[in-house]
Every structure is written in structure tokens, then in C-alpha cells.
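Entry 14. Ran structure prediction on the chain below.
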Amino acid sequence: MRLAVINDKSAEKLSVWTSSGYIPVESINHLFDRRWPCDMLELIRSGKLAVLNEWYLSGGREKLEEMHAHATASDLSRCAPPYRHPSKIWGIGLNYADHAADLSAKTPTGIPGSFMKPDTTIIGPGDTIQIPALSNKTTAEAELGVIIGRQCKNVSQENWLDVVAGFTTIIDMTAEDILRQNTRYLTVSKSFDTFFSFGPQLVTPDEIAEVSKLKVSTVINGQVHAENVVANMTFSPSFLVSFLSRVMTFRPGDVISTGTPGAVVIKDGDIVECHIDGFEPLKNPVTDLKVEH
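Output, C-alpha cells:
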């Protein structure tokens, strides 16, 4: 199942993707006498996402495909971020050797390079990434996102998918010039407003045949800047879920941004995208706050 939050007449509506477009969950509730939460984060935190997906896989998909009159066109420009207030956003740095080389850094071993981001960084598809006045070299990085589905602690690698609600596309930003001044400035360099775009879709695990085979690409102005497959990560998504759950208790809706195949320097007027096999692309325009418009 593929879920997105669609802007509809100034309201944000949780919706399920069909070949005809997106069907609002509130319409599904009305037509099929259900009571599923109509907010993505509430749906995840309530534990009802798994129930909705079970219904979808047990005949609901076919029923929704017949609801043409209730579908909203699959226009990615109308998508909002899946939600705006996760309890945690974990970021993973230098998780591909190629990206570490870009920064003249060594790939971490044993413990993944990790950082956290505030929810004030969050934007969604089509929203504008703002290069801050304090930075003269900001980069954008396409990444696979893992969304946690339930509260958990000390998760085993073998059972990692049991706690995953789904996956998504992410564009993470870094004020690289600030980071290069001192590695202790990592939190500052990652925490500017608009420095975390995610969406448009949450894709449930059953939609993905093999996570390790997914190709992740950082795209700038229509050209692929860097790409790699998840299998080439130093720390796999299963390891990250397990390891980080030993550090902090995960809560439903927490996000892990698993690392980028390559960061690209962005400038005013650019369009940056995250492409992942089988996912709708995530695309954001860029503006530099130091440039007069």
C-alpha cells in the first residue's frame, strides 16, 4: 500500500494511492463503515496502519480501484510531507564509501556516524529548500527513509521489518561550509529550517521485494549526480534499526534517514530530486536567502 497526504482545498488529507489517483481515507471510512484515523502520524501511532494494510491486501485494493469518482489526481505538486512532528529524526552520515570520499573522510566502522534533526527542518514535495544566510556552501543529499511503526527497544536485525511502518524518499541538507569548520558543528549544519524534505509517499514493506536492491539517486536539474544501491551501504537498514534501537527507544513515526550515495552543492534556482526504484520521486526547488528576488 502507498499512502500520501494530499493538499485539497487548503486541507491536508491522508489518502491511499490507486491507479486512478489518491482516495482519501475519510472517504474510505464513509463508504466502507470504517474508523481509521485520517492523519498519517495518528494512523501509525494507533497501530491501525497494519489493520488498514491488511484490509487493503485482502480485497480492499480491488474495491478502491473501482472508486474512480472519489480519486484525486496523482499530482505530486499537491502532496504535503507525510507528517510534521515525529518524535525523532535520525540521520546517518557517510554510509556509502563514495560519499565519504567526497568529504575526504573515512567511512565509519563499528558505530554509524549519526546525528539528529529537529522537526522544524521538515518540508514536503515541491516546498522550497532555503539556503541560509549563514552558509555559502549548502549540499542536498537523496536518501532512503525508514519509518518506524511501533514503540520498540533492542530490536534484533532478523526482526527489523516487524517494527517498520514503511519507507519513503528523503532529501537531507547540510551547510557543508559550517561543518568543515569543525565536526562538532554537525548539529548546526544539519538543523536549518527547510533542511529535511520527505515524502510524497509512505510505501509499506510488502510493496518492496528486496530493500537491499533499491537504487538511490541524487538528481540535480534533471541530471543524476550520484547513485548507488542499498546493498552497498556500510550499515544496512536492518543494522541501523537494530543498533539505534539499542541507543534510544523508538516511537511510532520516528524516521531514519539512511545515508546518501552522494551530496550535490545546490544554488539559487536549482531543482533537486531524490529518485528511488519503485517510488514516486521527491522534488524540491532551491532558493538562496542571500539572493534578491
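The chain has a mean pLDDT of 94. Will compare against last week's run tomorrow.
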